[in-house]
């Protein structure tokens, strides 16, 4: 069931009606039943696999000893690997259960926290099942933690008009981002990245710029929808985006993009790796080569590489994802290793980091570095990646023919100019809103009816219907 | 409140688009501009092939300015019927000859909306008729209905003051004005195309008969013209099969036609083509010169 569809809208209305007419004791059961219906709507068979994951993890982690933890990891990672990477071993018939990457991480996070003694294992299987299967976050996250979610999910939520209004407003924002902004630039990107060989540098730069817009609008739009839906049920989901494109460095960017996934990797992979024996051993070896390097910096080298390679592979077993992971591992390491020197250098040359032009430079630099990574990520093959970089570096000119060529993926000549104008207006409007919010979190809080009306009109008249699948659903 | 306001605004925009889009002051192209021109000696109705392959200044010279070309990207035969009726409904002008496109592959097109300009140019009556044709051909569903009546052409409507000055310069009496050049023989020889799996669509075949019947009812002179394609497409077995099929329908209904082979035009000349079926500026001129002769010599009054 697509989140942007009439069945989902009806499903939410019916579920809300039942939810707020159900008493304190049974209200959470409505959410659990709703989550099961939502999941089975997509493919009833796959509930078996999420059920295996839920029951085995809950049962094993009731006594969070080492062997139980290992079994939990083996079962859950095993299912993930079988379904997600079987195609790489020539098995094409298995379609991964909806949201398996996300609920597996939630499961493993829960198991790890139980094993570390950070949380008390759940004593109620159904409560735990609701935590894993809660439908708004099931398909694409955010990857919630048991500590944050459990109490909210099982608590009683009385009818609250503000929750409904705020949630609906946020859903409208999400649909706007997805159908209007991501949907419109998406066609251009698909056309150009589908066969990059035939396009000049300028077109490829525009497509890459659009891809940054599409990714943010698609993914944050999805998050707005699920957070809005969850708000309507009185359950606050973790925020997953914090205007990442205003980041002044790549490490900052990754603290503001897909926050829950990065926190998960930090908590459950990076930090344990830093303190692990293998890392101490390897970083001691590295210390012998780089004698002046700080011990703390050396300890982050191998965990950073591991985390980024795993992050890449988590997206899928493709060259482009692996290359993307290695690229960002390299960038993060460069950033860690040079940040001290850069600070000293800035002080020496009296470079005021609070100056607005310096900030703009830093943001532009971050976006440039990010764009290079996204070219690797979006390319359909290694040869495409090489071709795109080659064309950008050797065939970029600002002249009439390249500008005309850059217009062609918008559609035929008669539609291109109108499309360009509409995309420019919408993207600028979105940028202005984000910039204002970056300066003041409370910007655009008033006059919500006007904004909601405007967005609904634009969605209805300019939205790209039929583009309701979200990018991260594939993972 | 927001929802009510939004619904009202959407309703106004949709009503305006569907009822008044055909009255927008579009220059140098489209039905409204053609109708405004008055009596014509030759009126072309076809697809982008006509738009690219007919040189209007040359036609102007030959027919004393009494010519016009109504063409849309991927225009379909089913839509051509509606466009002919629309012109008849909105104009009392006399047309010496109407030239319809004999595009063999048009017989294989799934009935669909090929160009938002098709909707834009039609009155509400025409829009309803085209929708009915699409519905009868079984090519409609709810998302398509939404696209057809709500979103299609909305970009043009909203950006009209900004885009019209730009678009207006790209056409002259409905035909292209740009000096397009050939991408070269190598490109044309390597360009991949595969039409072997195309199948005939009955609604498009019926539309050919409809066009003939409607013209006869109106005592309107007409001719079907096949515009030359690059020889690789022109000589493709599937293409030939559908050309023969088109000819069969025309012969059965005793309609006149001019084939690409009836004019003295070299389909092997790479400089004449921008792609497989659209001509470069030099090809357009070479072809139009011959087409004028063919129209003057080869078309009898109905």
Give descriptors for this structure.
heterodimer, A: 475 residues, mainly alpha, 2 domains, 20 helices, 72% helix, B: 302 residues, five-stranded parallel sheet, two-stranded antiparallel sheet, 15 helices, 7 strands, 52% helix, globular
Chain-wise SSE layout:
The complex is a heterodimer of chains A (475) and B (302).
Chain A: H1 6-20, H2 27-42, H3 47-61, H4 66-85, H5 100-115, H6 125-133, H7 135-138, H8 146-154, H9 161-194, H10 201-232, H11 250-256, H12 259-274, H13 277-289, H14 295-315, H15 319-348, H16 356-378, H17 382-394, H18 400-407, H19 413-439, H20 448-462
Chain B: H1 2-20, H2 30-37, E1 40-47, H3 48-53, H4 56-63, E2 67-72, H5 77-90, E3 95-101, H6 116-121, H7 124-136, H8 142-151, H9 154-158, H10 160-168, E4 171-172, E5 175-176, H11 185-190, H12 202-217, E6 222-225, H13 231-234, H14 237-252, E7 257-258, H15 281-298
Parallel strand pairs in B: 1-2, 1-3, 3-6, 6-7
Antiparallel strand pairs in B: 4-5
Folded structure, characterized:
The complex is a heterodimer of chains A (475) and B (302). By secondary structure, chain A is an all-alpha fold. Chain A has 2 domains: 6-159, no CATH class; 164-474, no CATH class. Chain A has 20 helices and no strands. Chain A has helices at 6-20, 27-42, 47-61, 66-85, 100-115, 125-133, 135-138, 146-154, 161-194, 201-232, 250-256, 259-274, 277-289, 295-315, 319-348, 356-378, 382-394, 400-407, 413-439, 448-462. In chain A, helix 10 packs across helix 17 (382-394). Chain A is globular and about 65 Å long. Chain A starts with 5 loop residues before the first helix and ends in a 13-residue tail after the last helix. The relative contact order of chain A is 0.10. Chain B has 302 residues and is α/β, with parallel strands linked by helices. Chain B has one domain (37-114, 160-298): Rossmann fold (3-Layer(aba) Sandwich), CATH 3.40.50.1110. Chain B is built from 15 helices and 7 strands. Chain B has helices at residues 2-20, 30-37, 48-53, 56-63, 77-90, 116-121, 124-136, 142-151, 154-158, 160-168, 185-190, 202-217, 231-234, 237-252, 281-298; strands spanning 40-47, 67-72, 95-101, 171-172, 175-176, 222-225, 257-258. In chain B, the strands form 2 sheets. Chain B has a 5-stranded parallel β-sheet, with helices on both faces. In chain B, helix 5 (77-90) runs antiparallel to helix 7 (124-136) and helix 5 (77-90) packs parallel to helix 12. The model of chain B has no long low-confidence stretch (mean pLDDT 90). The interface between A and B is medium-sized, with 22 and 29 residues.
């Amino acid at each position: 069931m697509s989140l942007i569809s009439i069945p989902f809208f009806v499903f939410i209305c019916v579920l809300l009606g039942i939810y707020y007419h159900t008493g304190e004791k049974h209200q959470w059961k409505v959410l659990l039943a709703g989550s099961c219906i939502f999941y089975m709507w997509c493919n009833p068979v796959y509930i078996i696999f999420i059920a295996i994951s839920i029951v085995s993890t809950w049962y094993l982690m009731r006594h969070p000893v080492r062997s139980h933890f290992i079994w939990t990891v083996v079962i859950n990672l095993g299912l993930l690997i079988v379904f997600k990477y079987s195609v790489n071993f020539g098995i094409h018939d298995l379609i991964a259960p909806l949201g398996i990457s996300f609920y597996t991480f939630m499961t493993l996070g829960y198991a790890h926290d139980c094993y570390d003694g950070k949380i008390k294992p759940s004593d109620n299987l159904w409560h735990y099942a609701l935590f894993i299967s809660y439908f708004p976050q099931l398909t694409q996250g955010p990857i919630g933690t048991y500590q944050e979610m459990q109490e909210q999910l099982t608590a009683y939520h009385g009818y609250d008009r503000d929750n409904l209004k705020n949630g609906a407003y946020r859903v409208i924002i999400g649909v706007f981002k997805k159908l209007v902004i991501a949907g419109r630039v998406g066609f251009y990107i698909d056309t150009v990245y589908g066969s990059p060989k035939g396009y000049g540098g300028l077109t490829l730069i525009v497509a890459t710029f659009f891809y940054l817009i599409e990714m943010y609008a698609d993914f944050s739009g999805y998050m707005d929808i699920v957070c809005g839906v969850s708000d309507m049920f009185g359950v606050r989901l973790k925020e997953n985006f914090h205007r990442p494109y205003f980041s002044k460095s790549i490490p900052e960017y990754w603290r503001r993009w897909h926050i829950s996934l990065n926190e998960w990797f930090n908590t459950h992979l990076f930090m344990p790796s830093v303190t692990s024996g293998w890392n101490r051993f390897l970083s001691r070896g590295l210390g012998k080569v780089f004698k002046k390097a700080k011990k703390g910096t050396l300890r982050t080298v191998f965990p950073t590489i591991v985390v980024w390679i795993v992050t890449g592979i988590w997206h899928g077993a493709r060259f482009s994802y692996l290359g993307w992971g290695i690229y960002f591992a390299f960038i993060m390491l460069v950033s860690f290793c040079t940040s001290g020197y850069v600070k000293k250098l800035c002080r020496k040359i009296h470079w005021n980091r609070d100056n607005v032009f310096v900030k703009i430079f830093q943001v532009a630099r971050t976006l440039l570095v990010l764009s290079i990574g996204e070219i690797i990520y979006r390319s359909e093959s290694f040869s495409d990646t090489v071709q795109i970089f080659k064309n950008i570096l050797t065939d970029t000119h600002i002249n009439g023919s390249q500008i005309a060529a850059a217009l062609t993926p918008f559609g035929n000549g008669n539609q291109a100019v109108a499309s360009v104008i509409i995309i420019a207006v919408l993207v600028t409007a979105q940028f202005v809103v984000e910039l204002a919010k970056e300066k003041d979190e409370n910007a655009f809080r008033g006059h919500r009816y006007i904004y909601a009306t405007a967005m609904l009109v634009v969605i209805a008249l300019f939205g790209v219907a039929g583009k309701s699948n979200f990018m991260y659903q594939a993972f | 409140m927001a929802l009510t306001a939004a619904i009202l605004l959407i309703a106004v925009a949709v009503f305006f688009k569907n009822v008044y889009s055909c009255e927008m002051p579009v220059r140098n192209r489209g039905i409204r501009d053609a109708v405004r021109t008055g009596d014509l000696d030759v009126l072309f109705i076809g697809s982008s092939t006509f738009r690219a392959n007919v040189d209007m200044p040359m036609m102007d010279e030959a027919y004393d300015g009494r010519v016009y070309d109504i063409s849309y990207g991927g225009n379909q035969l089913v839509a051509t019927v509606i466009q002919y009726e629309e012109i008849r409904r909105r104009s009392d002008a006399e047309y010496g000859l109407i030239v319809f496109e004999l595009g063999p592959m048009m017989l294989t097109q799934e009935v669909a909306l090929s160009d938002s300009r098709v909707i834009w140019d039609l009155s509400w009556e025409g829009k309803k008729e085209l929708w009915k044709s699409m519905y009868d051909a079984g090519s409609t569903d709810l998302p398509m209905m939404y696209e057809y009546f709500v979103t299609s052409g909305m970009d043009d409507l909203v950006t009209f003051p900004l885009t019209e000055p730009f678009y207006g310069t790209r056409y002259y009496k409905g035909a292209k004005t740009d000096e397009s050049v050939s991408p070269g023989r190598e490109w044309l020889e390597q360009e991949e195309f595969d039409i072997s799996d195309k199948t005939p669509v009955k609604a498009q075949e019926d539309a050919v008969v409809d066009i003939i019947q409607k013209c006869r009812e109106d005592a309107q002179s007409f001719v079907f013209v096949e515009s030359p394609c690059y020889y690789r497409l022109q000589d493709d077995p599937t293409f030939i099969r559908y050309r023969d099929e088109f000819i069969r329908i025309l012969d059965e209904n005793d309609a006149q036609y001019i084939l690409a082979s009836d004019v003295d035009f070299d389909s092997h000349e790479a400089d004449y083509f921008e792609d497989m079926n659209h001509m470069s500026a030099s090809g357009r001129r070479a072809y139009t010169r011959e087409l004028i002769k063919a129209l003057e010599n080869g078309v009898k009054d109905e």
